[in-house]
Here is the input.
Amino acid sequence: MNVKDYMHTLGAAARAAARAIARAETRQKNQALLAMAAAIRRESAALLAANARDLAAARAAGLDAALLDRLAIDARAVDAMAEGLEQIAALGDPVGEISDLKYRPSGIQVGKMRVPLGVIGIIYEARPNVTADAAGLCLKSGNAAILRGGSEAAHSNQAIAACVREGLAAAGLPETVVQVVETTDRAAVGELITMKDFVDVIVPRGGKGLIERVTAEARVPVIKHLHGNCHVYVDDRADIAKAVRIVENAKTQRYGTCNTAESLLVARAIAPQALPPIGAMLAAKGVEMRGCPETLAILRAAPVAQERLRAATEADWSEEYLGPIIAVKVVADLDAAIAHINTHGSQHTDAIVTEDYGRARRFLREVDSASVMVNASTRFADGFEYGLGAEIGISTDKIHARGPVGLEGLTSQKWIVLGDGHVRG
Here is the structure.
């Protein structure tokens, strides 16, 4: 079977499965989720062995450090996948939820009901955990899913897919509710994003190149974010010790994630006091700082490893490094910080460190990003941390879903009208 026929076979099966899962009871969906989690825990050794095969092949192919970081899973990550599925099972079922039901002067009642989107196609690179997260979220929200992982994670994804199928079967649901594309042919992506008859929405998760391609070529709606140039702004009313901790976590806990801080802004009034300890911490962690002239002047006079300093270019203010590099700029004040973020940011996640309640409120209102934080690390921008159980991705779009996309983001609403023989006069 050629790729087009293969993908259309998956699409037809997904469309049929979508009707079955849309009417499934909450109890049945939760049973499947818990069975998936149990299978993942039981098969932990097999999942880690499959991932080791993928990692060995990826290293041999010379894949970069950021991709290897996203590809790797350990026992803790396997446990997190299972816990994520268990959390999803514990969450309320959004399907069928009725809200805003009101009587109109005519006597009818008008409200909204939450319904599944239908068939969701998910395209992702590395990140084997997406296979479990996406399967769980799509299932609980009443959607069928077609998952197309990257070839670099083929063994990991298929091992997790076996656990997903086991969970579906245990609950008496069709195995085609979640299908993981088996071919590594890149043409499968082109088919998936243009199958309007079978797919209702596409969610790409991966590098900028993948997302740009999907956005340009898709013939179905896309929930996406292109990249994560996340900022931490240290206000002149910040607690400096708190700022050091937040910057350290936001930048250095993991380098290859979209919610890692890539830019640091510091208010001019506090820069001489705040930059030296922050710079010393970053240098000790092996992070290169690409600074504006004011930043470099302060740090070159401080006990900071000079080999970690470099002059920033204009391109650095908009860069997603996915590595041990951060852009650092001294800004005049809160207004300048907000303007810089709204100009150079990616509308993903941005944080302010300040003890001034009024400034914090302004930052929350005026920064145009999917997640905006006060005195917290950008690394919290995550469906698991937000209590969504898991996430299918982080959207920087402004329509339908924004930020970490969980159950509610995978549903829509339709108007419902309740009457008793009412007719319009």
In short: The two ends are 58 Å apart (CA to CA).
